[in-house]
Amino acid sequence: MQNLHGHTYKVVFGISGVPDDVGIVVDFADIKKIWKNRIEPYLDHRYLNETLPPMNTTAENMVVWLFEQMEEGLRTSGLGERSAGLRTEFVRLFETPTSYAEARREWMADA
């Protein structure tokens, strides 16, 4: 068994929707609020095996959890009518600058 170690992950979300009359799909501040309230408390300086649902905390499993959390956050964000058309299209979780796991809407729908 390896010694306990940490990672500095980077996550990229692809969000889609219909632009409003000003040309905005969703304000980045709203995405950040979802991140800060729904996702970051489970990840930042945490022992992931204790804060995430029971799973093997691989990047591949975590990216599925991230996708699900963002989808739920968009649905329940309080953005009113605008939230109805918002969708998570993909999530990439970078473990290093060149290595990442990815979940895409079409793959999640097929699962």
From TrEMBL:
Highest classification ranks of the organism: Bacteria, Bacillati, Bacillota, Bacilli, Bacillales
Keyword rRNA processing included in the entry's annotation: no
Listed name of the protein: 6-carboxy-5,6,7,8-tetrahydropterin synthase
Pathway involvement of the protein, from the record: Purine metabolism; 7-cyano-7-deazaguanine biosynthesis
Coiled coil (residue ranges): none
Enzyme Commission (EC) number: 4.1.2.50
A Pfam family the protein falls into: PTPS
Family affiliation: Belongs to the PTPS family. QueD subfamily.
Cofactor annotation: Zn(2+)
Protein source organism: Paenibacillus cisolokensis
InterPro entries noted in UniProt: 6-PTP_synth/QueD, 6-PTP_synth/QueD_sf
Catalytic activity reported: 7,8-dihydroneopterin 3'-triphosphate + H2O = 6-carboxy-5,6,7,8-tetrahydropterin + triphosphate + acetaldehyde + 2 H(+)
